[in-house]
Amino acid sequence: MVNLGVADSCQLLAQASAGIFTLCDSSFTIYVNKVAGGVLQFGWMASGPLTLILAVNRLFSIWMPVAEESPRLSVPYKIALGVSWLIAVVFFASYMTPYTAVLYFPEQFAWNYDNGPWSEFISSCELYGMFAVFTLCGLIYAIIFVRMYRFRMQASHSSRELRILVQAVIISGYTSSCLITWHTYQYFLPDTKITQFCLNMMNIINPSINPILYLMLNPFV
Asked: Which UniProt keywords apply (predicted)?
């Protein structure tokens, strides 16, 4: 959850810069815009694999509760975290090249890829890679729900696990909806400023879901 919080913070930082761009009706220089877009995508591309790790963690905690405390999981867990951040770094590095970038367009209230020679390829990698990740998350959560239904856990343990599970499922589901709408909105929504504004608001809310759900599902914190 901490790593996911860092990824969410990167996205919120970039979205804050978009607010400044909008108020000033300018993105200042292309370099500032590229860095802001790179930070946004850095957090976004890290959040996908981290969400999958969270799903796998929930699967282990439900299927084999003792595994959650087992030190044997620490090394694979650290490797998975390292790979997640490495993926984000690779995408960030690509956005810093002259060949592709995610830029904020104040007049459209939206982030979008530029017309660089790599943009279509990088966009496709993002879409299909993240779609595969969230599909796996969906399958894992389906397995978890079946497991919980067939083998009822003790009430005290079940309540705690259920809160964490609900939080993880909502995060995964909402993030998936952001991915799909951002890449395919032109097929079912009018391409207007209002549409772009609403899509951007969805993406702003996305990194805020984690702390909001934590406070809602843990009222005594």
From this structure: Membrane, Transmembrane, Transmembrane helix
